[in-house]
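Support request, please re-run this one:
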Amino acid sequence: MPEPRNRQLGSCLASGCLPGERILAWAPGVRKGLEPELPGTLICTNFRVTFQPCGWQRSQDTPLSSEYDFALINIGRLEAVSGLSRVQLLRPGSLLKFIPEEILIHGRDFRLLRVAFEAGGLEPQAFQVTTAIVQAKAQSSQAQQYAGITLSKAGQGSGSRKPPIPLLETSEDWETERKKQGARGWRVSTVNERFDIATSLPRYFWVPIRILDSEVRRAFGHFHQSRGPRLSWHHPGGSDLLRCGGFYTASDPNKEDIRAVELMLQAGHSDVVLVDTMDELPSLADVQLAHLRLRALCLPDSSVAEDKWLSALEGTRWLDYVRSCLRKASDISVLVTSRVRSVVLQERGDRDLNGLLSSLVQLLSAPEARTLFGFQSLVQREWVAAGHPFLTRLGGTGANEEAPVFLLFLDCVWQLLQQFPAEFEFSEFFLLALHDSVRVPDTLTFLRDTPWERGKQSGQFNSYTQVYTPEYSQPSAGNSVNLQLSVWDWDLRYSNEQILQFHNPGYDPEYCPGSWLPKQQPSFMVPGPPSSVWLFSRGALTPLNQLCPWRDSHSLLAVSSRWLPRPAISSESLADQEWGLPSHWGACPLPPGLLLPGYLGPQIRLWRRCYLRGRLEVQMGLSAPTVSGLQDELSHLQELLRKWTPRISPEDHSKKRDSNTILSQSR
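Re-run finished. Output below.
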């Protein structure tokens, strides 16, 4: 290629770079695995590998591409190919042994980028770009990656861009959400505003209205990592769903502290159910091992024979863990919905399974959480603001604590979407977009472990002084604040046409109004027994003598529920047990808005559009490689059509939707 043309192309490529991004190498090639194949240029920068098709120009309004960009931290496996049989697996520090004719980049998000290089004197460029990718990947660290896009780069005036959803970074955001839920017995506490109780907690959270902040401070000190009981969600019927860490039994609280802890757990209710969220659910190590096995099985070059593939899938245990999570979330939803009570989710660290179960319970019980806006708000509140350690769990810190709990949650949501297709406003494409976003280093949403780290990196506060306003107004003079964008700013990586696909065409908003229950206690919910305390384990309720482990008599909760006597699992579902108690109810239907998913056998399916994206037949639109597979797909589509038919008409499908309306209509 002549030198002037090199400079011209290099200048063109550089125009699409983000601040601080440098092009290390590039080479012309053809992206394979698509129909038709796509000619363009493979580019390696200091934080991503991208394929730029011929004639394609990056928009200033969309500086990133969801289709063509692979963050270095997302590369799970890199292979160079020459001829039909010469393949080299490239690891950090590897030296390329030949000039590659083709390169395969396997993403940790199950995507595959396959590029064949052009011949005719361009072989050195192919060698250079492949070597550059190996070196850049070896030097990259998720903790050191590019930490967000400035507002000006996104084509917006500084400070003028309003977040798509409330980011819960201000007390006003929390107060607005509290009023929206109708949680009258709760208030916004500012006791952690300076992060001096716990850096993993949000600056603001909800506590009972009668509890003073001084009592909150003392009470939280008796829980693991100072993560005391806080409100996650208030059910319109009167129940409250709380979450907290494990009791720090080595502490020695006085009587006033014990009383404050009990009042916070009771939350004004006489019936309290304590749920050990780790009971019967996989450990973090189990989740990590299952995900690694699943990813190895779904690689295009998996050595598993086709007739043994389903057995190998079962052996990963991934679907078993999805099944366990859905079953437990269903039981907790029944607990919250069937009686007016306080249901407390207790996990030692309060940062993993508590968030997963709390989110699933709200999706099953609250139709507003199934809207596009509501689901994004739910993830922001129960995962991001609540301090889920995204960076550590996704392997970004190098610590031996990797476990994709959030990806397990997204799989659970996908299962619900398949079983109840008309109940969710968002689509499978939206879930895929969110799944892929956890490894994209363009925002701080998934790049930090705690709200404190996220706020410090973004310049949200200086010496713990708030600088954001509820409306994201211009910072005051003298504050050089670099306002960062969140993962919910989808228009940075997705076109309007793609955002349109976030919407589920089978969703009927009139069927699922925003206020599905009156704020008064509905007739199907009755108060629990007076002054009753229960431990929920193995699908059954066991009575407890007391709430706290520091009382004189021994408390069962002071011991892990794994060491408690195991009650036999009832053949009846918890719904049958709970709603079957009042004799005058008879065969009462489920409360409006409550979903109880199936989790037996084939009811739990493999998310093939996500996990099998590296298979060429899937990329080309062939979702099933065999006749029997096609028959299964046809049966599934017919079942979806049967479920959707009563609620939508052909005219509804023909209505055009605006992407901005889709993202904001549920606010």
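The longest helix spans residues 318-338. The radius of gyration is 26 Å.
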